[in-house]
Amino acid sequence: MLETVRWITAEGTVLDCFEKGVPLLPGKLRIIDQTQLPKDLVYLELDDIEEIVAAIKRLSVRGAPAIGCAAALGLAACAQHLPDEGFAGAVEALADKLAASRPTAVNLFWALERTCAHLRKCAQARSGDLKLELVLEGLAILAEDIRMCRAIGAHGAPLIEAGMGILTHCNAGALATGDFGTALAPMYAAHDAGRRFTVYSDETRPLNQGSRLTAWELHRAGIDVVTICDNMAAQVMKEGKIDLVIVGSDRIAANGDAANKIGTYGLAVLAKHHGIPFYVAAPTSTIDTALATGARIPIEHRAAAEIGAADGVRVYNPAFDVTPHELISGIVTENGLHRPPFKFV
Question: Which has the closest alpha carbon to 304: 322, 321, 285, 319?
Answer without folding.
Answer: 319
